[in-house]
Specification:
With 775 residues, the protein is an alpha/beta fold. It is built from 23 helices and 31 strands.
């Protein structure tokens, strides 16, 4: 359209502000293309909060453009708000409004308010190129464009441009530079853009770091994997340890070397069809596993799966992911079988990210190393998700999601750093109307992980440009995250009760102002009454909470030892239910326990010496699961509870008796009648599948009872389900079912219900206290 034609018709103007994840994802070139196609002129540029557009043209053309802006987007963009306002059309002569241009962004401090985008899975166009022998990027393991490739893991600073990434070490060749500069090209301003001539290189090395010369490194790795070897692969956010997932000896060898006895391994398969061959998927699971975030998705394994049983021992679920980098696509095409892809570390250590670090830490595990020279700036483990109650739920929020901000209904009064939990740690920075959850750090159990935690916080502060003024932390005085918070130089520090933070996290994700009835079920959290909490019913707004109900406390003989040796929990609940005289000789869980050990534990419980009391619903899963399944020990966190959940017969609708002590404040759910009924069922030969289902149904019935009380006392409040126990699909779905027709029920989605989402709630509670003038 010429300027002359525009001048002859009515011309109007519109200013548009777009907020969300709209930088570093090809958003401006996309706007340019739809502007040209819609017949409008103007300009687009990045600003400190997102993208701004000024557009001019006939009213009908502006409407077409605006509608496309509202309803379409590049695959990696996440638009959360668009604001339109009319402006005066630019006069002609002057700048011709028939032209549409991309304006260079102004740098400066304002740019630092925009988050770096998450890492993005390989797009279909790039995947086609690496398998096309006529293409100049044929079999190139670092192929990417504006729709895909690394972002967070290569970013060193902001604004997000090549000079501020680890790709600064690679100068683009003329052909790549031309792609980068041509607005019509899908590689326009793709910061990691490269090709075999000018980009990163891949090579194979042995455990001594000596290069394997000659062969294609991907072929070398594939041959090793097919032969049963273990290969350490440098990926997007760190190293994976890979082996043939169909070979029992290979998987067992990896378990022995990695010191991971039983915890399930994740599996990568070539494509969706390969995933369907090893697991059952519904439509929502297909969408989730193939999404641009490419998380590990927990799926129900097919009985005839080719996977070795050692991949996920005693577990009907298997974590499956699709390739998300060109290197993965090439490798999976070569081996043509499922591969174990687990974090490149020893248990409890952070994932290795550098070549020398990996050779040093993984040389006793891996037989071959697949290395490259593109540095990884930020560690970023794979995300983990599953479908619960028909919707995706993120259980570990990391690669593909972090640090995409959570949009909030109301802005922070002052910038906040929330330091997260001790286990499954993730931190949160909040400012303006956004909260930025960093990538998964893990359990703060070792000096190495604590050091990685500190680095992660410093990096997130730099990348999102937030200097916190308020520090939020858990109440537990022995958590390393609490220690870190108290050592920060900021003067405003706010301790937040663990389960209050869980509920606030879900409220923030769903934009709920409160009050709500928060049901927070997990293993443990620091309580204010001398017990560990974890079976809590709280009336919550951001600034405070009222505890209206909880579960009867059980003794943890030996403290954390009881969480590993779960026979201690089984003994404790039996003794409590049968007044110290249970028929323990009827239960195989105690067969391998010495009589003296039983006596010692009973004495500990009697005297209260080193016996904290815990109310966590997760501990009830452990205790009853250990009793019925005959499992005295939990080999990894949550093993017995997980298996106890997964054996349930979902068709069983029976409910065990329970009591609610209404005279106590708060109300106390008493599961002792349930324990006695479980024993009766065991003695008459009911199967674990039936007992597990009735156990889940009983918890749901207890929730319904407390909700009825809450509605009578407090009105019809929204109900929020939160805490690690709500990663259990059956429990969540049973509770949603029993509350149907009553209050609105909210589950988590992109913010984990477990401790990986806790920091968001900490930040929101601290902010509310600041706004109330509490500090």
């Amino acid at each position: 359209m010429s300027a002359a034609v525009v001048a002859e018709r009515e011309c109007v103007g519109r200013h548009i502000e777009v907020r969300g994840t709209v930088q570093g994802v090809g958003f401006r070139p996309w706007v340019y293309r739809i502007a040209r196609e819609s017949g409008v002129g103007g300009r687009v540029w990045n600003d400190s909060r997102g993208v701004e557009i000024e557009v001019f043209g006939p009213p009908e053309a502006l409407e077409v453009f605006s509608e496309r802006l509202r309803t379409e987007a590049p695959p990696a963009a996440l638009i959360r708000e668009i604001q339109f306002r009319e402006i005066q059309a630019e006069a002609i002569p002057g700048e011709a409004v028939s032209e549409f241009v991309i304006v260079s962004s102004e740098g400066g401090a304002g740019e630092r308010k925009v988050s770096i985008p998450p890492d993005l899975a390989t797009c279909p166009e790039c995947e086609r190129e690496i398998f096309d022998f006529r293409d100049r990027r044929y079999r190139y393991a670092f192929t990417n464009c504006t729709n895909c490739g690394p972002r967070l893991t290569i970013a060193q600073d902001v604004p997000y441009d090549r000079a501020s990434t680890t790709m600064a070490a690679f100068t683009m060749c003329p052909r790549c530079q031309a792609e980068y500069e041509r607005v019509e090209d899908r590689r326009f301003h793709a910061q990691p853009n490269a090709c075999p001539v000018c980009g990163p290189k891949l090579w194979a090395a042995d455990a001594r770091g000596e290069r394997r010369e000659g062969n294609d490194p991907v072929c070398s790795a594939a041959l090793s994997l097919v032969a049963g070897k273990i290969v350490a692969i440098k990926g997007i956010g760190g190293f994976h340890l890979a082996c043939n997932a169909t070979s029992s000896p290979a998987v067992e060898r990896l378990r022995q070397r990695k010191h991971r006895d039983a915890k399930p391994f994740a599996v990568m398969v070539r494509d969706l069809a390969a995933a369907e061959r090893i697991a059952f998927l519904d439509d929502e699971e297909r969408r989730l596993i193939a999404s641009v975030a490419r998380p590990i998705v927990l799926l129900r394994r097919r009985p005839d799966s080719v996977l070795a049983p050692e991949v996920a021992p005693d577990n009907p679920l298997v974590g499956v992911m699709l390739p998300y980098s060109p290197l993965h696509h090439l490798l999976l095409a070569e081996v043509d079988r499922p591969l174990v892809m687990t974090s490149g570390n020893l248990s409890e250590e952070p994932i290795a990210r550098g070549n020398e670090e990996a050779l040093d830490r993984l040389r006793e595990i891996a037989d071959l190393f697949l290395l490259h020279d593109r540095e990884i700036e930020s560690r970023c483990d794979d995300s983990v998700a599953r479908v619960i109650a028909g919707a995706p739920l993120v259980m570990r929020r990391s690669r593909g999601y972090a640090p995409r901000p959570v949009a909030l209904a109301r802005p922070f009064a002052r910038p906040v750093l929330a330091c997260g939990a001790h286990l499954k740690n993730t931190v949160c920075l909040g400012a303006g109307d956004a909260a930025y959850l960093g990538p998964h750090v893990g359990d703060l159990e070792t000096a190495e992980t604590y050091s990685s935690y500190q680095e992660s916080i410093a990096r997130l502060e730099r990348l999102v440009g937030i200097a916190p003024e308020v520090i939020a932390h858990d109440l537990h005085p022995l958590y390393l995250s609490t220690k870190y918070a108290l050592e920060r130089p900021e003067t405003v520090k706010i301790g937040v009760q663990h389960h209050h933070a869980h509920v606030a996290s879900a409220m923030g994700e769903h934009g709920l102002a409160g009050p709500v009835l928060g049901i927070a079920f997990d293993g443990t959290g620091y309580g204010t009454d001398g017990t560990a909490w974890g079976g809590e019913f709280l009336i919550v707004d951001y600034a405070g909470y009222e505890r209206i109900a909880t579960f009867r406390a059980m003794p943890l003989a030996g403290s954390d030892r009881a969480i590993r040796e779960v026979w201690r929990l089984a003994l404790a609940v039996l003794d409590d239910a049968f007044a110290g005289d249970p028929p323990i000789d009827r239960f195989s869980v105690f067969d391998g326990v010495e009589a003296r050990a039983l006596s010692v534990v009973r004495k500990m419980i009697e005297t209260g010496l080193n016996v904290p009391r815990a109310r966590g619903v997760g501990r009830w899963f452990d205790a009853i699961g250990a009793l019925v399944l005959g499992r005295p020990v939990s080999r990894y966190e949550g093993e017995v509870a997980t298996i106890w959940n997964l054996v349930a017969d979902e068709g069983e609708r029976g409910v065990y008796p329970f009591a609610v002590e209404s005279l106590s404040q708060p109300l106390e759910i008493d599961p002792r009648p349930m324990v006695r009924a479980v024993v009766d069922d065991l003695i008459i030969g009911r199967t674990p599948a039936v007992i597990s289902a009735k156990f889940h149904n009983t918890l749901a019935a207890a929730v319904a009872e407390v909700v009825r009380f809450s509605r009578a006392a407090c009105g019809d409040l929204p109900v929020v389900l939160t805490g690690g126990c709500f990663q259990n699909a059956l429990l969540a779905e049973r509770i949603v079912e029993v509350l149907a027709g009553g209050p609105r029920v909210y589950l988590h989605g992109e913010v984990p219900p477990g401790d990986g989402g806790l920091a968001l709630g900490q930040a929101l509670v601290a902010d509310a206290i600041v706004k109330q003038g509490g500090v």
